[in-house]
């Protein structure tokens, strides 16, 4: 993008949450896989707007009511499709029910999970929205991912709904190992995006998507992704609504 074109783009509120290794705050500064992707997009489009780390529920609410606001990493699901304008995909995620490794619980279907007394999920995460839409009345909403994982490991819950991309890091931060839990049942594949408020300029969305596509073509996106999530599948080259949920 030419400097003159970048200068015409409006200032943005850029919001994210504490969800390592994708997004988090380190020594007061935003860090993580998707943070690095967003910062490189900003460099390419000429944006110098700061990234704010805040609780997900707050950022999710602000991104729906403010103009010129971006929120990431936001999983693109049907329940959210018309709430935002989308740039991505930037992550590939498996949503699963997790239990402690010493648990005897067996889940072979969503119906089995619906019969449980309680499942913990982060408030306003896409997993809560999806499971609620599928008739789950046994969800308990928790403020942060680390709080949810801590409750699982301390025996205050038997089952949580979380992701393959973030669980290992969250466990290590709390003094545990990834082997201390196991997946009881994987129920959804999603792609994460940068979600822009509906009142954001289409020119901004177009410029950010173009910069992301260029990153994927020149290899810089893959380099960032592999450094943070070695061995995990990467999202496709360009935005594709069909990748929302599989």
From TrEMBL:
Transmembrane regions: none
Pfam family, one: SBP_bac_3
Tree of life domain: Bacteria
InterPro entries linked to this entry: Solute-binding_3/MltF_N (IPR001638)
Stretches assigned to the Solute-binding protein family 3/N-terminal domain: 11-232
SUPFAM superfamilies: Periplasmic binding protein-like II
Protein name as catalogued: Solute-binding protein family 3/N-terminal domain-containing protein
Organism (species): Chromobacterium sphagni
């Amino acid at each position: 993008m030419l400097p003159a074109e970048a200068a015409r783009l409006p200032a943005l509120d850029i919001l994210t949450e504490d969800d390592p290794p994708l997004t988090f705050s380190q020594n007061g500064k935003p860090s993580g896989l998707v943070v690095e992707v967003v910062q490189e997009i900003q460099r390419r489009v000429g944006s110098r707007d700061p990234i704010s780390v805040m609780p997900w529920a707050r950022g999710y609410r602000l991104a729906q009511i403010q103009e010129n606001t971006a929120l990431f990493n936001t999983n693109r699901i049907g329940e959210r499709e018309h709430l935002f304008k989308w740039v991505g995909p930037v992550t590939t995620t498996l949503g699963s029910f997790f239990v402690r490794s010493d648990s005897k619980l067996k889940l072979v279907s969503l119906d089995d999970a619906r019969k449980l007394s309680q499942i913990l999920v982060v408030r306003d995460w896409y997993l809560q929205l999806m499971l609620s839409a599928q008739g789950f009345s046994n969800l308990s909403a928790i403020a942060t991912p680390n709080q949810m994982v801590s409750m699982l490991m301390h025996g205050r819950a038997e089952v949580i709904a979380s992701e393959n991309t973030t669980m290992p890091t969250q466990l290590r931060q709390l003094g545990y190992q990834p082997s201390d839990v196991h997946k009881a049942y994987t129920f959804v594949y999603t792609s994460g995006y940068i979600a822009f408020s509906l009142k954001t300029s289409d020119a901004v969305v177009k410029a950010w998507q173009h910069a992301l596509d260029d990153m994927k073509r020149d290899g810089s996106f893959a380099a960032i992704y592999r450094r943070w999530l070695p061995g995990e599948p990467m999202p496709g080259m360009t935005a594709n609504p069909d990748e929302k949920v599989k």
